[in-house]
């Protein structure tokens, strides 16, 4: 992946070009907040917007894209099918709902948000149908381990183009990166900044000081140099702009290895093999 500037793209295994850097909009409020964040991002040069039905802001994402004054073909839009909508027919209905909320004729990437046991393979069959119909330009999976992808490859005709997993300096999954390289699947990082929890790390701050950059900029640069596409989230204009200002410096191999060594296997979200229990506990706590 040769990343020279904010316009740089990576070639997916179906020959679609996907921007290497994008804006994530998880926990960004629908309406003015998400629209303003996207407008700032697009004005800065971002061309990938990552949303999901679970984020409850697809309407705002669509409104921002349609009012941005940028050719639709120049913006890469990702959305995802949620856990409660798995299965062939349910997925097709969920996609229809999403595309109507987005007010778009097609989606650039449609993804399985989490691999629901006994259902995600049927869901993938629906994604294949949407892909073949031209309603989506690429299909992928989120929050999967290699064994999930192996099952898809063994039972279907289309390989995922992208794997989007949690990835940051405290969760460096080098084995999964190598698996994706072998399978020609592009890895994309969600929560690359660990939801802000790692920005005060002493090691990262020392590297950032050397380049007169923020720790967030160092982490994003680290992602890109490791061949990882990344979608940092922010609703603040200055941070959205700063997160894209990462193309005027280059980390050394030693610095990349130093950041890799910060790995502690710490997650902000669920493990792909245990996410059902994670969400069950989350729902139970909300009912208290």
UniProtKB/TrEMBL annotation:
Residues 26-262 form the NADP-dependent oxidoreductase domain. SUPFAM superfamilies: NAD(P)-linked oxidoreductase. Keywords: NADP, Oxidoreductase. The keyword NADP applies. InterPro entries: AKR (IPR020471), Aldo/ket_reductase_CS (IPR018170), NAD(P)_OxRdtase_dom_sf (IPR036812), NADP_OxRdtase_dom (IPR023210). Pfam families: Aldo_ket_red (PF00248). Belongs to the aldo/keto reductase family. This is Glyoxal reductase. It comes from Neptunitalea lumnitzerae.
